[in-house]
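Subject: design request, 192 residues
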């Protein structure tokens, strides 16, 4: 149960009701972070608009590269909700979700391409101390630019940074897995 309760549809006003219907149509359930964020209507709207804009704009990288890097951040930070939702997104994008189970061993696993390994390593560098001993290096960014181009590096960096924000925020608010990854999703306000 989250530390801040989810806003039930009847308690959120007309805009929240419409947004919940849209989310439920897209994901079959209302994502709990969405329902918790509804406690602050202006941030709720800002976040919803931002997420839709980022989703539409992120088309430079191969889907597997982006999804694996984002998933790695979620698993590193320990956000069970993000891991759960990320598993569903990978499945919906037609990716092999069994590969997610091996992400801890990406460096030497034959399940990952060199491009995917480079992106996951970058996620590791950004998610730890980006200026520390194992942080981002000039060589790493140059390698990513050769692989994905400048726009690809910016997209990858943005997605990793955004997932760091999401994962840390949801973990701090006590939001946990909701069942998206297993297709047995719970409704956030149904638990009293």
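Subject: RE: design request

Done. Sequence follows.
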């Amino acid at each position: 149960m989250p530390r801040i309760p989810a806003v039930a549809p009847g308690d959120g006003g007309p805009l929240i009701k419409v947004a919940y219907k849209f989310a439920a149509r897209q994901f079959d359930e209302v994502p709990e972070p969405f329902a918790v964020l509804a406690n602050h209507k202006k941030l709720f709207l800002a976040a919803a608009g931002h997420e839709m804009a980022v989703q539409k704009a992120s088309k430079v990288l191969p889907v597997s590269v982006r999804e694996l890097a984002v998933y790695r951040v979620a698993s590193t930070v320990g956000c069970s909700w993000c891991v759960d939702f990320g598993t569903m997104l990978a499945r919906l994008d037609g990716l092999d979700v069994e590969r997610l189970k091996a992400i801890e061993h990406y460096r030497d696993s034959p399940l990952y391409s060199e491009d995917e390994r480079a992106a996951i390593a970058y996620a590791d560098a950004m998610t730890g101390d980006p200026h520390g001993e194992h942080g981002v290096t000039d060589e790493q960014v140059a390698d990513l630019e050769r692989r994905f181009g400048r726009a690809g590096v910016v997209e990858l960096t943005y997605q990793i940074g955004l997932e760091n924000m999401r994962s840390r925020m949801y973990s701090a608010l006590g939001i946990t897995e909701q069942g998206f990854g297993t297709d047995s999703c719970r409704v956030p306000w149904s638990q009293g």
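The CA atoms of residues 3 and 173 lie 5 Å apart.
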